[in-house]
């Protein structure tokens, strides 16, 4: 199907949801259980040495500090403390208007039940790694990942693809503890094991202290590889500042590839409108690490990288903010291949070490 035809079909498919969104907004009193929400965010970014061969890039990037989106969420009271809940959330490229993830509701699409016993939902949902791991990223601050986040060193590999298709997720909060368990069916004929994902996590939040740990694993569709990811972290608030500390790891059974990243940082509410944060990240890889996106994977081997990043976020209002971000990454050995392939599309050949520097200015609006 040609691109023009695809866009026409996508536009036609969007019309019913746009109409529903308008209805939810104009008839809020008639249907109080349905909420329309979203984020529009864009940024201008310059990156030096994107490919390891000293070629820079200037771009208008979608998202910037948080991915643009619109969504519908609903809650119907069934009585007895039980509710029906649903969420449909679409990612939108604010630079070109395209649907993200090559699907309409690519961010989230689920329905289920909730009550005093917790919640059980079915569909495309965030895994525990995403919900817990991002909570301790020093630069996250509740807005979601940003376009050049240092947690992407190594190729954005520490979250098991963030979302699980065909999944069941159970959540329960009891006092300071929040538990999440997730399971994704593999849907492979003749096997209940191939292609499945499973995991969970536990968060503790009381007063100034927050701690969390999560684990998820995914078996390949052919059963030949199992990828295991984990995350541990904590934060502590004191006065206007919050300190963060975390570690994430990944293991691949096929080839015994190993990846790790550790980070520490600080956020500070300088004024009621201005929040600043900074962090340091240390990444390292070992074993039979290969390229991710080449038709024939090339062996890269061990390597490491260091990154620093700072963010200043200024609130113009309760819904609108402007932000300025800067980061630098210095990679060595096999980490050069992972870093340059992820950002430039191909691993830099014959380069033992490289430094990438970026700066980004953008705006974010919530509705």
TrEMBL record:
Signal peptide, first to last residue: 1-24
Pfam family, one: Porin_4
Main location: membrane
SUPFAM superfamilies: Porins
Membrane-topology annotation of the record: Multi-pass membrane protein
Stretches assigned to the Porin domain: 19-332
Record organism: Cupriavidus necator (strain ATCC 17699 / DSM 428 / KCTC 22496 / NCIMB 10442 / H16 / Stanier 337) (Ralstonia eutropha)
Protein known as: Porin
GO CC annotation terms, alphabetical: cell outer membrane; pore complex
Gene Ontology MF annotations: porin activity
